[in-house]
Amino acid sequence: MRGMMDECTHLKNFSVPFDTSLIIAVCAKDDAYVPREGCASLEEIWPGVEVRYLDAGHVSAYVLHQKLFRYYIKYINFIILTNPFLIYFRSCIVEAFERSKQAYNMDKENIGENIKPTLTYEELVNKYTNSI
Protein backbone atom coordinates (compact mmCIF):
# COMPACT_ATOMS: atom_id res chain seq x y z
CA MET A 1 0.00 0.00 0.00
CA ARG A 2 2.80 2.43 0.89
CA GLY A 3 4.44 1.88 -2.52
CA MET A 4 1.19 2.59 -4.32
CA MET A 5 0.57 5.73 -2.25
CA ASP A 6 4.13 6.94 -2.92
CA GLU A 7 3.61 6.42 -6.64
CA CYS A 8 0.35 8.37 -6.62
CA THR A 9 1.16 11.14 -4.14
CA HIS A 10 4.92 11.77 -4.12
CA LEU A 11 5.55 15.35 -5.22
CA LYS A 12 8.56 14.35 -7.34
CA ASN A 13 6.08 12.66 -9.69
CA PHE A 14 4.45 16.01 -10.50
CA SER A 15 5.52 19.27 -12.09
CA VAL A 16 7.15 21.88 -9.89
CA PRO A 17 4.78 24.81 -9.27
CA PHE A 18 5.55 27.95 -11.28
CA ASP A 19 6.59 30.10 -8.32
CA THR A 20 7.46 28.03 -5.27
CA SER A 21 8.34 31.14 -3.25
CA LEU A 22 4.58 31.70 -2.86
CA ILE A 23 4.12 28.38 -1.06
CA ILE A 24 4.09 27.99 2.72
CA ALA A 25 3.87 24.31 3.61
CA VAL A 26 2.86 23.34 7.14
CA CYS A 27 4.34 19.91 7.94
CA ALA A 28 4.48 17.66 10.98
CA LYS A 29 7.89 16.92 12.52
CA ASP A 30 6.92 13.39 13.60
CA ASP A 31 4.89 12.42 10.57
CA ALA A 32 4.95 8.63 10.06
CA TYR A 33 3.18 8.82 6.68
CA VAL A 34 5.37 11.60 5.22
CA PRO A 35 8.84 10.81 6.61
CA ARG A 36 11.55 13.49 6.85
CA GLU A 37 14.51 11.12 6.89
CA GLY A 38 15.70 8.90 4.05
CA CYS A 39 13.92 10.83 1.29
CA ALA A 40 14.17 14.12 -0.56
CA SER A 41 13.01 17.12 1.44
CA LEU A 42 10.25 19.38 0.24
CA GLU A 43 12.86 22.14 -0.13
CA GLU A 44 14.80 19.91 -2.55
CA ILE A 45 11.72 18.96 -4.55
CA TRP A 46 10.32 22.52 -4.69
CA PRO A 47 13.28 24.92 -4.32
CA GLY A 48 12.16 28.21 -2.79
CA VAL A 49 9.25 26.77 -0.79
CA GLU A 50 8.93 27.84 2.85
CA VAL A 51 8.31 24.93 5.22
CA ARG A 52 6.99 25.47 8.74
CA TYR A 53 7.02 22.49 11.08
CA LEU A 54 4.59 21.62 13.84
CA ASP A 55 5.78 19.51 16.77
CA ALA A 56 3.25 16.76 16.05
CA GLY A 57 2.45 13.72 13.94
CA HIS A 58 0.36 13.41 10.77
CA VAL A 59 -3.04 13.16 12.51
CA SER A 60 -2.22 15.03 15.73
CA ALA A 61 -1.04 18.04 13.69
CA TYR A 62 -4.55 18.43 12.33
CA VAL A 63 -6.39 17.49 15.52
CA LEU A 64 -4.31 19.65 17.88
CA HIS A 65 -3.53 22.59 15.56
CA GLN A 66 -6.79 23.25 13.70
CA LYS A 67 -6.67 26.92 14.72
CA LEU A 68 -3.36 27.35 12.92
CA PHE A 69 -4.70 25.81 9.72
CA ARG A 70 -7.81 27.99 9.93
CA TYR A 71 -5.62 31.06 10.48
CA TYR A 72 -3.66 30.38 7.29
CA ILE A 73 -6.85 29.80 5.30
CA LYS A 74 -8.34 33.06 6.61
CA TYR A 75 -5.05 34.86 5.88
CA ILE A 76 -5.00 33.57 2.30
CA ASN A 77 -8.65 34.54 1.83
CA PHE A 78 -7.88 38.03 3.18
CA ILE A 79 -5.01 38.47 0.74
CA ILE A 80 -7.11 37.23 -2.18
CA LEU A 81 -10.03 39.49 -1.29
CA THR A 82 -7.92 42.65 -0.75
CA ASN A 83 -5.31 42.47 -3.52
CA PRO A 84 -6.68 44.02 -6.76
CA PHE A 85 -4.70 41.62 -8.98
CA LEU A 86 -5.88 38.58 -7.05
CA ILE A 87 -9.47 39.84 -7.01
CA TYR A 88 -9.27 40.03 -10.81
CA PHE A 89 -7.61 36.59 -10.99
CA ARG A 90 -10.28 35.10 -8.71
CA SER A 91 -13.07 36.66 -10.78
CA CYS A 92 -11.53 35.11 -13.92
CA ILE A 93 -11.55 31.67 -12.29
CA VAL A 94 -15.17 32.10 -11.17
CA GLU A 95 -16.16 33.29 -14.65
CA ALA A 96 -14.40 30.30 -16.27
CA PHE A 97 -16.34 27.93 -14.00
CA GLU A 98 -19.60 29.70 -14.83
CA ARG A 99 -18.85 29.39 -18.55
CA SER A 100 -18.13 25.68 -18.20
CA LYS A 101 -21.40 25.19 -16.31
CA GLN A 102 -23.29 26.88 -19.14
CA ALA A 103 -21.37 25.10 -21.91
CA TYR A 104 -22.01 21.69 -20.41
CA ASN A 105 -25.45 22.44 -18.92
CA MET A 106 -24.29 21.59 -15.42
CA ASP A 107 -26.60 22.18 -12.53
CA LYS A 108 -27.04 20.26 -9.30
CA GLU A 109 -29.42 17.75 -10.90
CA ASN A 110 -27.28 16.68 -13.87
CA ILE A 111 -23.63 17.41 -13.08
CA GLY A 112 -21.46 15.47 -15.47
CA GLU A 113 -24.26 13.92 -17.54
CA ASN A 114 -23.20 15.65 -20.77
CA ILE A 115 -19.48 15.05 -20.27
CA LYS A 116 -18.28 11.96 -22.06
CA PRO A 117 -14.86 10.48 -21.29
CA THR A 118 -12.43 10.33 -24.19
CA LEU A 119 -10.61 7.28 -22.81
CA THR A 120 -11.84 4.03 -21.37
CA TYR A 121 -10.46 2.90 -18.03
CA GLU A 122 -8.19 0.37 -19.76
CA GLU A 123 -6.85 3.02 -22.16
CA LEU A 124 -6.16 5.35 -19.25
CA VAL A 125 -4.27 2.63 -17.35
CA ASN A 126 -2.25 1.76 -20.48
CA LYS A 127 -1.46 5.42 -21.11
CA TYR A 128 -0.33 5.85 -17.51
CA THR A 129 1.81 2.69 -17.38
CA ASN A 130 3.43 3.46 -20.76
CA SER A 131 4.43 6.93 -19.58
CA ILE A 132 6.37 5.58 -16.57
Word description of this protein:
Strands 1-2 form a two-stranded parallel ribbon. With 132 residues, it is mainly α. The protein is extended. It has two domains: 1-82, no CATH class; 84-132, no CATH class. The chain is 51% helix and 8% strand.
What's a concise summary of this model?
The chain is mainly α and 132 residues long. The chain contains six helices and two strands; from the N terminus they run αβαβαααα. Strands 1-2 form a two-stranded parallel ribbon.
Write the layout of secondary structure elements.
Layout: H1 2-9, E1 24-28, H2 42-45, E2 50-54, H3 58-64, H4 66-82, H5 84-103, H6 121-131
Parallel strand pairs: 1-2
Helix pairs in contact: 4-5
Main attributes of the structure:
132 residues; two-stranded parallel sheet
The averaged pLDDT comes out at: 76
Helix/strand/pairing class, anyone? mainly alpha
User: What is the domain total for the residues?
Assistant: 2
Shape: extended
Portion of residues within helices: 40-55%
Order of helices and strands: HEHEHHHH
First-residue to last-residue Cα separation: 19 Å
pLDDT below 50 for ≥5 consecutive residues: which ranges? none
Order of strands side by side in the largest beta sheet?
Answer: 1-2
Largest sheet: 2 strands, parallel
